[in-house]
Amino acid sequence: MYIKGVNLGNWLVLEKWMSPALFEGTTAEDEYYLPRQLSKEVYEARIKIHRAEYITERDFLHIKALNLNCVRIPIPYFIFGDREPFIGCIQELDNAFNWAKKYDLQILLDLHTAPEGQNGFDNGGICGVCKWSQNPKEVEFVLSVLERLAQRYGNHSALFGIEVLNEPITENAWKIFDVPNRYRAVDEKMAQGSKPNTIEFLKDFYIKAYHRMRNYLPVEKYIVIHDGFELMAWKDFMQEDTFQNVILDTHQYLMIAEADGCKQELSAYLTYIKENYAKQIKEMSAYFPIICGEWCLFNSLACGYDTKGGQNVFNGVINNTSNNITDKEKIYQEIAKAQLSAWQQGNGYFYWSYKLLIDTVNNPNWQGWDSWDFDRCIDLNYFANKEI
User: Fold this and answer.
1) Residue in 87, 136, 93, 130 with CA at minimum distance from that of residue 111
2) pTM summary value
3) How far apart are CA 271 and CA 266, in angstroms?
């Protein structure tokens, strides 16, 4: 099965930039502080409404109509409702499995957050804190969550697989993202001691997770491990016959390519995609099935985004004139074609993300960010002839 999928980001794991209204009335930048700045009643009401409306049965029907075959669902470590003050979301996930079964879609469950943070990102649940792997009690808790997920959904016909943990950051990526400065911690004392995870720890953790999950997860269901932003570091890992149906997930964003020295020019992007993404995925496919679990069309050329200055500078590629909008469409079509070709060197992809709740027309801060929204990309013809 070649995966053609999309992430249901910001549904069960919140990301402020994807739905700013959820965070109104607070200074919270992540999900950790949202319930700590709202009253219990307001927090619960806000979350319940969001979960009920953001993704519904209609979305699963629409995703199927877009000729996709799988959804990747980010879920939090508190999904079972056992980590106050957060509210569990297992019922919403049960609903998703029923919808997926009805509309013949597969689900990749993605454990997207870990207590005390596995990357220090806002999407890891708490900005600037990355201490989870240093706390054996919390490592065990995450293993127990994975075990319970495997037990609950292991035999469900709509389950494609379970991803052990999203984006556990390693040393090189920690430096590239400049995590302590890019994602400022609210509580410096809490963040003290934060550091990247080691490859050695991740390998040990993945092996433990594999065995714990396989107690309930049939061998035909996949276990997915993230590369920690080090795609080429996993050649000798899990190659024994003991490990079956393990998929390696890599996340490839053009923002990272720019940080790696890729010029903000169309020809440079196309060359980088071919010489890096496609070549590395093809090489690693000799060891694992490979999926690109997160990618999008966002790039500075089309969006006028200054990656060094960290702001949208609108360099003239986009404005209100039809010619430049046409230029933007052509740029995205070329970049989409190149990336889709790169993912074909492996076993498929999941676009990030299915939808955003932001106004990219009236709010200048969000202009150019429509490329993160898969549904808008389809409607705006960023994929030539809607070929995905």
Assistant:
1) 93
2) 0.95
3) 9
Q: What is the dihedral of CA 281, 282, 284, 287, to 10 degrees?
A: 140
What is the rounded average pLDDT of the residues 350-369? Answer: 91
CA 296 – CA 17 distance, rounded (Å) = 15
> Going by C-beta distance under 8 Å and a sequence separation of 6 or more, which residues neighbour residue 251?
167, 226, 229, 292, 293, 294, 295
Residue 321, pLDDT score = 34
- What amino acid occupies position 242? T
Please, which residues have CB within 8 angstroms of residue 152's CB and are 6 or more apart in sequence?
A: 90
**Is the backbone peptide bond immediately before 85 cis, with ω within 30 degrees of 0?**
yes
Alpha-carbon span 305 to 301, nearest angstrom:
7
CB 352 within 8 A of CB 295: yes
Query: Which pLDDT value is given to residue 325?
Result: 63
C-alpha span between 35 and 33 (Å, rounded): 6
Residues 326-336: pLDDT tens digits?
788 999 999 99
Give the Cβ contact number of residue 166 at 10 Å.
25
CA 205 – CA 212 distance, rounded (Å): 11
Q: Read out DSSP for 98-141?
A: HHHHHTT-EEEEEE---TT-SS--GGGTSTT---GGG-HHHHHH
Q: Above pLDDT 90, what percent of the chain?
A: 88
Cβ neighbours, 10 Å, residue 213:
22
Q: How confident is the model at residue 245 (pLDDT cuts 50, 70, 90)?
A: very high
